[in-house]
Amino acid sequence: MRVLLIEDDLVLGAAVRDQIAADGHSIDWATRLDAADEYLAVAVYDLILLDLMLPDGRGQTFLTSLRTRGNVTPVIIMTALDQISDRIEGLNAGADDYMVKPFDLSEMSARVAAVARRYSGNPNPLVKIADLEIDLAARSVRRDGKSVALTAREWVLLEAFVQRPGQLLSKAQLEDRLYSFETEIESNTIEVHVSHLRKKLGRERIDTVRGLGYRFGAA
After folding, report:
1. CA nearest to 5, candidates 182, 164, 185, 154
2. Does residue 118 surpass a pLDDT of 90?
3. For range 20-42, the mean pLDDT
4. Dihedral, CA of residue 182, residue 183, residue 184 and residue 189, to nearest 10
5. DSSP 3-state assignment of 51?
6. Residue 15 neighbours by CB distance under 10 Å
7. Mean pLDDT of the chain
8. Are the C-beta atoms of 45 and 57 separated by less than 8 Å?
9. 23, 45 contact by CB (below 8 A)
10. What percent of the chain has pLDDT over 70?
11. What are the phi and psi torsion angles at 28 (to 5°)?
């Protein structure tokens, strides 16, 4: 996924950024709401991690504005505000989940994955496609009953394909899943990762539509 983190605590922000990146996702980090708006103007995100108390305003007001403008990107609030009334207010403003600081980074990863599954239209973490068994929660794949080892980036690509079976995904869409603004992308990076996935999952599994992108089939 491509994730937008909005958090002004530099220590926590760095820890969250590193955890999300270690999970194989791309992440952009804004420490102010105005900077977050600039990111949202030029990129499409799969998830937003939102602090409620920012230097230039309240995260809840920002979230309400997002929903009013028709932005349906899933949002997980991360805040030290732990009263039931705060949680109700955040969820009613349009949040999909609410985490109280301090929180365990592994739990955050699990919540991120759970929200992503719900928005993909398949809340079931277990997906079976022909001879493949994919566990989205455990981030594991079995082919013909045998475990398949994937790198973090290969997993992110597979997850993108599984969430949109049969749908054509452009190279740019896949790059958005893998890389943040600060990452320098080599021209053939997606081709290399797709080639590795084909070797591990079956060459016939991923179709190339020349000049347009890739499609994950059930072959």
Report:
1. 182
2. no
3. 92
4. -160
5. strand
6. 14
7. 88
8. no
9. no
10. 93
11. -110, 140
- Quickly list H helices, the chain: 10-22, 33-42, 59-68, 84-92, 105-119, 152-163, 171-178, 189-201
Stated length of the chain: 219
Scored b (16 or more CB within 10 A) or e, 88-109 reads: ebbeebbbbbbbeeeeebeebb
Say if CB 115 and CB 72 are below 8 A apart.
no
Distance CA 61, CA 69 (A): 12
What does the pLDDT read at residue 35? 96
**Phi-psi label, residue 133: left if phi above 0, alpha if psi -120 to 50, beta otherwise:** beta
pTM: 0.69
pLDDT surpassing 70 at residue 123: no
